[in-house]
Design a protein that fits this description.
alpha+beta, 45% helix, 717 residues
């Protein structure tokens, strides 16, 4: 229908300009929708009205945003606080995909023309939806005015529909030509203002969504998916920058092609080697400006190519080779750099073959889409850079933690790799609990919780950094800075030499003269054995040490000294291991130091339980452990796991000088006794045995001769 455009009177024009300023200034999108419909009703004297919106890039349906009717006192959506009860109206038939022209608003959307109907019941078009709503609400719809809202890129943003124009006496009349002109002018302002706010809200939502991703590996596919949806691109690639300082290059990271059904995430994939990176420099060290992606990275410019086969500015040999091998036709390209907050290029987003939403034919990327894709690239780069920075910090933390663990192990070759083996055991136990569907059916760890457990396992002995080397390195009972047994053996050697070459001149020497070389050799062997320590030292052996202390030897000045000093006697009589009571207290204090160290660190929320997990591995289920004397009920499950991991590693360690490598049979027997004594968690011990954690650990760490258990069921009885 051809309409003659009328010139609005000055007062109306000024009023419309005031409305336009108000619409463009509105930052609350619901308030904006409300104002658009309210002003439309006010200017046209409409009794009712509805505002619909759609996705400008992929208009598939019209969604009800606000429904208002003065006579029926209906106000849904917008700022009303009440949800619109009507379902979206599809723009296309679901069976044949033909345009849906069965309603006034969908006709206006497809025809992109204002529709003015004086009486829907007399109209040649069938308006079943309108008549059905009238019957349900006891309303009578007569005059209808529907206006498509088109943005500056000639895309459909929505539809504004008004119902039942009224005269001064509230009689229903037709919307006249003046109403058409007023609504058309209002629609121009409204479509631009709405489009801007919808884009801003969409980008905010997208930024929030992208920021929620926990890894680059899951984030990148989402970025590419959103970019393709925004631009109607059939294919796309995301490149990430690598070796920025030495040999900068763009590496293929994510590749998608809907036509060829390609969806590849190459991060961490061996397949990545099949896609050679694009260097940013040529052989002469100059910027590589022949490849479109490297040009984009070097110049930090967006590049929009309508037809790669007609373009002479860039080399598309690789693209053409791909097309020949796949039967594809790469035509339009939109390439944009991903810049971080320092304006450094961290990657490139490339989109290929924009599609017409109706015909599906390949078309150039619209110039109007460039600001949108730049905005998306900005948000994507922010989210991606955050992930890269987060991963860098995480890698640094991991390296620092492992460095501390290596430093602790390096303090003593006799506990070498303990801090590296406990994390392995801890992970095996935790995985067994996650897989268990019986006792631990409710236990599970997400990605963050797994990381928390690993950090705690690596840091479980960090307090040993404060333990004196003389205690931590005490591999034998007489060891200080060196093994004191050497001094005792030297005394015996001196005594043996003197007895072999002198005549006794005193009662003491007469007593010693009764010792033979064989006796001295036996004493040396006994004291050497006692010095090594072990799981248990008999009372009679301790008494023998005290008796041997009474033997004296004479130095070069003729002074007599006891064979063993009181300190040496005390240490040689240590009943278990190599540490005295005082030394045991010193080394046990490493647990309190561990807790103090870890609790002083500002761990983020996701790592808040690291001190509790790491600091509980010397606690016992009956409360007799240290440093806090916690009971089973007071300890978390991971803390109880840590106790078993720490004990089992110590029992089976093959590098402890005071004992030979313990076989699995003995280690499991000791653990079983500890379970029965209520020292370790009984359910976790049963899981440890039932899931054969011990077997998996043995295959990775222990000597073949230590693996002397096949089944392990006997330890469950």
């Amino acid at each position: 229908m051809n309409r003659v455009k009328r010139v609005l009177d000055l007062e109306t024009s000024r009023h419309l300009m005031d409305i336009a300023h108000e619409l463009f200034a509105e930052r609350d999108i619901n308030e904006l929708f409300e104002k658009v419909l309210s002003y439309a009703q006010e200017l046209t004297h409409a009794d009712g009205g509805t505002l619909y919106i759609t996705n400008p890039q992929q208009p598939k349906s019209l969604e009800f945003i606000i429904v208002k009717n003065t006579s029926l006192k209906i106000h849904q959506g917008g700022t009303s606080g009440r949800k619109v009860k009507f379902s979206p109206i599809p723009l296309y038939d679901s069976f044949n995909c033909e345009p849906n022209l069965s309603t006034v608003v969908t006709r206006a959307a497809h025809e992109r023309e204002l529709i003015n109907i004086s009486d829907v019941y007399q109209d040649e078009q069938h308006h079943s939806g309108t008549t059905q709503i009238d019957r349900q609400s006891h309303y009578h719809t007569e005059s209808v005015l529907a206006l498509p809202l088109i943005n500056q890129a000639n895309q459909l943003v929505g539809v504004l529909q008004l119902i039942n124009a009224q005269d001064e006496n509230n009689n229903i009349i037709q919307f006249d030509d003046a109403c058409e002109e007023i609504l058309s002018e209002l629609g121009r302002f409204a479509s631009v203002a709405m489009d801007q706010q919808l884009q801003i809200n969409s980008q905010r939502a997208l930024l929030a969504e992208l920021s929620a991703f926990s890894s680059t590996q899951t984030l990148l596919p989402k970025i590419l998916e959103e970019a393709q949806a925004l631009t109607m691109a059939d294919a796309g690639t995301i490149y990430l920058m690598e070796d920025e300082e030495t040999e900068p290059k763009l590496c293929f990271s994510v590749i998608r092609n809907q036509t060829l059904n390609i969806n590849k995430n190459l991060l961490g994939s061996e397949e990545k080697s099949n896609f050679p990176p694009i260097p940013l420099k040529d052989k002469e060290g100059q910027d590589n400006l022949t490849n479109i992606a490297s040009f984009c990275a070097n110049t930090k410019q967006l590049v929009n190519i309508e037809d790669a086969y007609q373009n002479k500015a860039f080399c598309f040999d690789g693209t053409k080779a791909f097309d020949r091998s796949s039967g594809y036709k790469s035509c339009s390209f939109l390439t944009v750099p991903l810049l971080n907050h320092n304006e450094d290029v961290i990657g490139v987003l490339q989109l290929i073959n924009a599609k017409n939403p109706d015909t599906k034919e390949t078309i150039p990327f619209s110039r109007h889409i460039e600001p949108l894709i730049k905005g998306l690239a900005t948000y994507a780069a922010i989210a991606l850079n955050n992930q890269i920075l987060l991963q860098d910090h995480k890698d640094l933390l991991d390296a620092f933690i492992q460095c501390i663990a290596q430093a602790i192990d390096a303090k003593s070759p006799h506990t070498s790799a303990h801090c590296q083996r406990v994390p392995l055991l801890m992970e095996l136990i935790a995985k067994a609990a996650c897989d268990d569907e019986e006792v631990f059916a409710d236990f599970n760890l997400n990605e963050d919780e797994w990381y928390e457990v690993r950090v705690a396992a690596w840091m479980h002995d960090c307090g040993k950094l404060a333990t004196p080397d003389t205690v931590l390195e005490k591999s034998t009972k007489l060891h200080t800075m060196q093994d004191g047994i050497d001094l005792v053996l030297a005394r015996l050697a001196a005594l043996n030499h003197r007895l072999s070459n002198t005549v006794p001149s005193s009662a003491a020497e007469s007593t010693q003269q009764s010792l033979t070389t064989q006796d001295i050799q036996s004493i040396a062997e006994f004291l050497t054995s006692a010095n090594k320590g072990g799981e248990f030292m008999r009372e009679e052996d301790q008494e023998k040490v005290r008796e041997l202390a009474s033997i004296t030897w004479t130095d070069l000045q003729g002074n007599e000294h006891p064979l063993l000093t009181p300190s040496e006697v005390e240490n040689l009589c240590i009943p278990k291991g190599t540490l005295s009571v005082d030394e045991r207290k010193i080394i046990n204090n490493h647990m309190q130091v561990t807790i103090d160290m870890l609790e002083s660190l500002p761990f983020p929320k996701k790592l808040k339980r690291v001190p509790e997990y790491a600091g509980g591995h010397h606690e016992k289920m009956d409360g007799s452990g240290f440093p806090k004397g916690l009971t089973r009920e007071q300890m978390s499950l991971p803390a109880r796991m840590m106790a078993i991991a720490d004990i089992f590693e110590a029992l089976t360690a093959r590098d402890r000088p005071y004992k030979p490598p313990m076989p699995l049979s003995l280690a499991l027997k000791i653990l079983k006794n500890m379970k029965e004594s209520n020292h370790i968690d009984p359910d976790l011990f049963d899981l440890f045995v039932r899931s054969k954690v011990w077997k998996k650990y043995a295959k990775q760490v222990l000597l073949p001769e230590q693996d002397d258990v096949e089944d392990g069921k006997i330890y469950l009885s």
